[in-house]
Fold:
Amino acid sequence: MEMALRASLTKSLRLSDSVRLEVASGLAGYEAAVLRMEAEAAAIAEGRATELLWLVEHPPIYTAGTSAKPADLVDANMFPVFHTGRGGQYTYHGPGQRVAYVMLDIKKRGGDVRAFVAGLERLIIATLADFGIAGEVREDRVGVWVRHGSGEDKVAAIGIRVRRGVSYHGLAINVSPDISHYDGIVPCGVLDHGVTSFEKLGVKANMADIDAALLRHFEEIFAPVTPPQSFGQLPQQVGGA
Structure:
């Protein structure tokens, strides 16, 4: 019932206008990435640019969303910490994790932020399914989860911000990150569940494999994409805030 409702919310999200696709080379510095997202979102809202899907990897960092609790930062010295305007709590980004930043016009898609987030959930779940991973969502927890025995672990995170009807930030899928890097935080404020990845689940896939599946389902749910472009490497960040 829950999944049927969420699927129904995504029916009106797809537009025929093409979305720009860029794939960053190297590891993108987080602060520089946020500045670029903010500029792109403003340009899209003002009609000066078309929508953008930007695929990146970051150096190891922690980010704190608008609901982050100080107690959930277990080790502030483990990696740089960035306070950001996206929704959610603490999360980790690092090599081996595919981050997809989605700068899309939600107004043109009916203006329903809940339906938009449901579309991102559907995108992740469909991508996981291509690799035999059964992803699920929970009403009381954000992100996408994988069952194991009597428990479940988080395999993908979602956190967006909307400004002038345009989204930015997006989603992160754990492909082959160092899971021990999550030890410095309570991921998304959830104490009773762990974090997993394709690698930890025994699923062999490289980033190109993930991208191909992600893009195919993005086109089904949101819009066709233009041929990928390499935006180049943003400077890596060594300090935190």
User: Anything to note?
Assistant: The helical segments are 2-9, 30-45, 113-129, 207-221. Residues 113-129 form the longest helix (17 residues). The chain has one domain: 2-221. The longest strand covers residues 151-163.
